Amino acid sequence: MFNKVLLSWYLITLELRNCRIWHCNDTNIKQIGRQQEPSESLQIVVVNGDVSFEEGLKSPKSEWVISIREKLEQACQDDVAGTWAKLFIYRVPYYLRERDDKAYFPQIVSLAPYHHGRRRLRKMDHNKWRSLHHVLKRTNHDISLYLKSIKELEEKARSCYEGPINLSSNEFVEMMVLDGCFVLELFRGAGGRFKHLGYPRNDPIFAMRGYMHSIQRDMIMLENQIPLFILDRFLGLQLSDPDHRGFVAKLAVQFFDPLMPIDEPLTKSDRNKLESSLGYTTTFDPLFDQSGLHCLDVFGNYMR
């Protein structure tokens, strides 16, 4: 019995020594800082001379402090410099959309991540794939060119949207390529030019009739926007000029012209002024300089 007690205290001494909380140096005792407080207490149990070590329950106060520290750490990560500066495609506040979803949500076509995959909007996906097929056939490009190009812009594009985007890297890039090419085909075909892009005159989507007005309405929804730099990249690829910028803004204004809240559409003089400000000139161009915007911003700026 005596030997068992000695053995028990010997094991206890070894365990305490392993904790290495204090360090003795000659006659001075210095505390070596612990990186964090132990979240659990160690209990030493001696039963009939047998020694065992059990982890006790976490202290409620310790758990509370740890929880607060985790929340502060998350807040620090959310407040990283530059995070909010990159965001410019917001979600509609809940107190607005709960009154009338149709006023803020797309009804026919989804663009970008916020409404991607919604069941009632999937019917338009077939036409998106048709538009991509036309682009590749007309330009004689391989799809890998577009995928690789958008892959390079993925991080920048994701940062434009509010909140986490629950799409994998491949899913996000595919969505941007499909939606972006669809938007550009609509822009380039507006004004009777769909025939020159290879679409039949009676096409149900790519013609200035049928669903076009409803599609235009959906495309100016705040939550249905694609960054302008993505569309610029696509148009640059199609025109064999990767650094091409500015022309998409011009196309956007012309495309949304029928939605202008005025009695008459753009006059020839207005169009000339628009081309002068958005074309290959050295004049100041607010749309050209703000490449980080989206088409709704372009449309809104022009109406001011």
Write up this protein:
47% of the residues lie in helices and 7% in strands. 22% of the residues are buried. By secondary structure, it is mainly alpha-helical. It contains 13 helices and four strands.
What are its keywords?
single chain, 304 residues, mainly alpha, two-stranded antiparallel sheet, 4 strands, 47% helix
Strand order, main sheet: write it out: 1-2
Shape: globular
Biggest sheet record:
2 strands, antiparallel
What is the strand content?
5-15%
- How many helices? The count is 13
Query: Whole-number average pLDDT?
Result: 77
Count all strands and give the number.
4
Radius of gyration: 31 Å
The helix/strand order is: HEEEEHHHHHHHHHHHH
User: What gap, in angstroms, lies between the N and C termini?
Assistant: 95 Å
Unreliably modeled segments = 19-40, 278-292
- Relative helix content: 40-55%
Kindly name the structural category. mainly alpha
What's the quick description here?
This protein has 304 residues and is mainly alpha-helical. Helix content is 47%, strand content 7%. It contains 13 helices and four strands.
Topology:
Elements lengths: L1 H18 L2 E4 L2 E4 L10 E6 L2 E6 L4 H19 L15 H4 L27 H15 L3 H9 L2 H5 L10 H21 L22 H8 L8 H11 L8 H9 L12 H11 L7 H4 L5 H9 L1
Antiparallel strand pairs: 1-2, 3-4
